[in-house]
Amino acid sequence: MKINSIRIGFAFLIAMLGGAAYAQDAGGDVGLVNSLQGDVSYQGKEGPARKAQPYMRLRHGDKVTLAAGAAIKISYTTASRQESWTGPSSFVATSSGGELLKGSKPEVSQLPAAVPQKLARVSELMNTSRVGGLVVRSVKAPSASSKEEVAEAVAAYESMRASAAPSDVTPELFLYSVFQEHGMVDDLKIVAKQMMQRQPENPEIRQLAQAALNAR
Hints:
2 domains; five-stranded antiparallel beta sheet; 7 helices; 10 strands; globular; about 25% strand
């Protein structure tokens, strides 16, 4: 009886994992658009092509097309990978990275292991900040595990910042997500100001930064 229970449990685990993989293949979120310039469009498995937007999420199976002179940078939230594409080119976003359809291969850099999960929250935070719903409550006594996670995040941020372009706010977006999650209001406001300094003309970044500066 115990052996049968183990077999049933194992089969259930395999089914769950298979279901998760199927859901991802069916079109789950796989990446965050960090920056883009020029004419860039995307098209899901169904529906018409649409103009890509900064900090939008890409789903598994989305086809991305870049016109000549266009550029897009994507951080994958399902892999420790960042890609920079230039046009003319096209590719399909997948859970493991972009699959080239036409044009040149992307420049690829590795992200620290802790980054993808936190970047996956950025689009949600931006959507919340647009409607004035971003709430951050200061945590007076963070736990030991919280301190350890934040320390690892700061180290990952410094590694990313060292290789990022001055105007690239991906490292700050990552740290923003960490500080917001841990209720570190003062640190969050510092990162918000840095984001605005790096991209002062970006309305999305201004909106997100302002939400942090208004937090208490």
